[in-house]
Amino acid sequence: MAEVHNQLEIKFRLTDGSDIGPKAFPDATTVSALKETVISEWPREKENGPRTVKEVKLISAGKVLENSKTVKDYRSPVSNLVGAVTTMHVIIQPPVTEKEKKPKGDPKMNKCVCAVM
């Protein structure tokens, strides 16, 4: 049972309340690899699934997880209990298109001009 301390059981909670997992991940697994797992195991019947790692945000214990960090960096003391499963919440943030980046309306209308007499 020594491998229990080197792995973390994780389930991914989607916004509709359904789950992916639980599945065991080694401590050295990066958050980016976790996101790739979410993308590959995304339920096919759900619309608007993520296509890239940049579209996926993972939240655990109130923290947005950074891609370069590992599972070990975010391990909590509770996860060391036998049979414990860590729940990570999945937020999908579609990429912003060029059309959405452009300001709406006339840019001159957004300026404020004051005159003191």
TrEMBL record:
It comes from the Eukaryota. Residues 8-74 form the Ubiquitin-like domain. Keywords: Cell membrane, Lipoprotein, Membrane, Methylation, Palmitate, Prenylation. GO terms for cellular component: plasma membrane. Transmembrane segments: none annotated. It is found in: Cell membrane. InterPro entries: MUB (IPR017000), Ubiquitin-like_dom (IPR000626), Ubiquitin-like_domsf (IPR029071), UBL3-like (IPR040015), UBL3-like_ubiquitin_dom (IPR039540). It is a lipid-anchor. May serve as docking site to facilitate the association of other proteins to the plasma membrane. This is Membrane-anchored ubiquitin-fold protein.
